[in-house]
């Protein structure tokens, strides 16, 4: 579905983190709906580098881009020479900045701040010099355990990831005051959908439960999962928010959720309904108490008002739409 009238002919779009989950969905959105736009993907892709928690440092995967015919650059946003090269040799009209240490459990504070905050500042400077609109990924992790509904301005991050995203937002506010370009931060809540498999254990629980069920295993939930509620948001709605944000004159920080929190138990129940199973759930203690969000619910009033954003997918519709892909990935990658 195309969300804006403009065909974006002769426009050049940079997508950082374009080999990741959300970035690759953006790349295909433009390819499919705005074939006359020039799309450049920049991503560090995956290597053997792992963080101290055992997870990969970057999750980009070429398979997320199979079928994408735009330009692809393998590079690190922390590399100032690369950014200079981009500044000299391209003229971007829009920058969608998705590249980040996206792992909320990463402990490397130095790498997190450098990659998520400092490199973002360099990209903002580039955007200003090109006159490009900046649409960047912030996160609901900025709220930590702040009371629901989460409202922009009431943040309380409880991990370095959330802190880094809040620092990006604070930086953006300063730039919004001083520059002419449009700068929009989108605080995604829990995103799920096509393209997330290569995030490994950091992929959404929708995918992980789906694969447990397809393997015939009893879905493993944390104790009290019917009362752990999150604002889960389908990838299509996240793309909608990004595209609507690219032409707004209303720079700012906006929540991207549904406004309707759902439980982890709901996810399993809907998946079992779609997959035609009736496996017994297993309940295990939650090891993340203290840095875990037990209730998130995006206040999306300002997102609707400023961007014309309107979430289109309830979880039932989204899982129905996604389940074929969950099965395909299971057959082709997991089995
Ligand atoms: N998926 C979610 O639920 C969610 C929620 C809130 C915010 N976000 C944010 O949205 C953005 C996209 O997330 P995602 O879910 O697609 O994660 P992802 O890990 O799939 O995508 C991030 C991409 O950035 C790349 N990358 C990492 N470090 C890089 C570097 N130094 N230089 C260049 N590329 C680098 C990775 O290879 C990866 O492809 C991230 O900024 C993330 O923090 C995601």
TrEMBL record:
<dbReference type="GO" id="GO:0008712">
    <property type="term" value="F:ADP-glyceromanno-heptose 6-epimerase activity"/>
</dbReference>
<dbReference type="Pfam" id="PF01370">
    <property type="entry name" value="Epimerase"/>
</dbReference>
<dbReference type="InterPro" id="IPR011912">
    <property type="entry name" value="Heptose_epim"/>
</dbReference>
<keyword id="KW-0472">Membrane</keyword>
<dbReference type="InterPro" id="IPR036291">
    <property type="entry name" value="NAD(P)-bd_dom_sf"/>
</dbReference>
<keyword id="KW-0812">Transmembrane</keyword>
<dbReference type="GO" id="GO:0005975">
    <property type="term" value="P:carbohydrate metabolic process"/>
</dbReference>
<keyword id="KW-1133">Transmembrane helix</keyword>
<keyword id="KW-0521">NADP</keyword>
<keyword id="KW-0413">Isomerase</keyword>
<feature type="transmembrane region" description="Helical">
    <location>
        <begin position="12"/>
        <end position="30"/>
    </location>
</feature>
<keyword id="KW-0119">Carbohydrate metabolism</keyword>
<feature type="domain" description="NAD-dependent epimerase/dehydratase">
    <location>
        <begin position="13"/>
        <end position="257"/>
    </location>
</feature>
<dbReference type="InterPro" id="IPR001509">
    <property type="entry name" value="Epimerase_deHydtase"/>
</dbReference>
<dbReference type="GO" id="GO:0050661">
    <property type="term" value="F:NADP binding"/>
</dbReference>
<protein>
    <submittedName>
        <fullName>ADP-L-glycero-D-manno-heptose-6-epimerase</fullName>
    </submittedName>
</protein>
